[in-house]
Amino acid sequence: MTAIEKEYRIIPLHKRPDLIPDCCTLLNSEWPRSETARLKFLNVSCDEFPICLILINKEERVLGHCKVSLIPRLRHSCFIQSLIIDYQRRSQGLGSRLLRGAEEHVAKKGIKNVYLITKGQELFYLKNGYKTCDPFKASGINDVVYSSAAFTKAKLKEKSIQSCGPPPPPMPNYQMPKFYDLGVLTQRTHMVKRLSSQ
């Protein structure tokens, strides 16, 4: 057992509801939302899925969080979101520890594939064994998992046929500021890791 494993524990948030306010603070430090929305996001944690896992130290301070949900249309697959480590404790291996703990937790429940979407943290996930994959949609009313580029193109073509007329004309004499690059702002990387059977 390493020093990191001795000093830190990963537990389901619903087993320690007293730590929910600390978890709200941690998540809002990176992605600000209303307390109501944040509590709704965290209070769904249960023994099955979705589950919020937290990384705590010996003093029981919340240092990390991730939420794991099933992907309904992909068998034996889950989706990790909102993986975060306290800003002051980053670059100490805690993110990898939390990610590994989440993978071990879901593997015990029969999960074989772990998916995630990231923007700017690709190197961290590559280092932890993830590979880029085709885009997928993990949640929402219209769950669609795009499993191949051909399927994606077919779906996009189908949607364009269903549109109700041509797009509106561009605003007259308006140019997008050079620093505002929509491609950069919306670019997200879809990644997957196949868990080895244990």
UniProtKB/TrEMBL annotation:
<dbReference type="GO" id="GO:0005737">
    <property type="term" value="C:cytoplasm"/>
</dbReference>
<dbReference type="GO" id="GO:0008080">
    <property type="term" value="F:N-acetyltransferase activity"/>
</dbReference>
<dbReference type="Pfam" id="PF00583">
    <property type="entry name" value="Acetyltransf_1"/>
</dbReference>
<dbReference type="InterPro" id="IPR016181">
    <property type="entry name" value="Acyl_CoA_acyltransferase"/>
</dbReference>
<dbReference type="InterPro" id="IPR000182">
    <property type="entry name" value="GNAT_dom"/>
</dbReference>
<dbReference type="InterPro" id="IPR039840">
    <property type="entry name" value="NAA80"/>
</dbReference>
<protein>
    <recommendedName>
        <fullName>N-acetyltransferase domain-containing protein</fullName>
    </recommendedName>
</protein>
<dbReference type="GO" id="GO:1905502">
    <property type="term" value="F:acetyl-CoA binding"/>
</dbReference>
<feature type="domain" description="N-acetyltransferase">
    <location>
        <begin position="6"/>
        <end position="158"/>
    </location>
</feature>
